[in-house]
Request: fold
Amino acid sequence: MLENILKISPIVPVVTIKKVEDAVPIAKALLAGGIGVIEITLRTDAALKAIADVSKNVSGMTVGAGTISNPEQFKQATDAGAKFIVTPGLTTKLAQFAQTQKTAFLPGVATISEIMHARENGFSYLKFFPASLAGGAPAIKQFTSLFSDIQFCPTGGVNLENMNEYFSISKVVCIGGSWITPDSLIGTKNWSEIERLSAEAISKVKR
Ligand code: 3PG
Reply:
């Protein structure tokens, strides 16, 4: 269930993996740093195999798939082992498909009309993306005053410096971000620094 998955960790690392062999060490480093959830984006050829490898080989890590934009990708990701699906936005096709699936689904929204569309389709946990460009924490405060039944996971421009602006809002269930697993650290296989950044991020969360 999505609610339980989003409660595993206040921070959901959004990870783009170019080389399949990096997936398991990245997931292990996140876990060692105290983060038990990972969103692997479907932006590379390695993504589906990376999801499968992490889900088979890293016990204690809950793996999800991000950047899903159609039902075919949704199915490929769940077949690979993804326990949750994240989308940058929501289409009618995706909404209808997600309703037929058991896999937890976190659709993206950026505007009030998009929130209304997602809500009409029965989704009450929404990714707010791209958060910093779409109004940041003040926008979420406005949204929650209109729709008190919706919980948000802001992502896009969220980082160590500004995450607590989001966590100060009670309807922010988690935040997503890529700063813990930047290309520069993955490229140099610096797993210990990824572990350190994970632990640092978790230790600075104020809710
Ligand atoms: C995402 O897909 O959720 C974003 O690319 C993550 O945004 P960030 O790189 O600004 O953290």
About this structure: The chain has a mean pLDDT of 98.
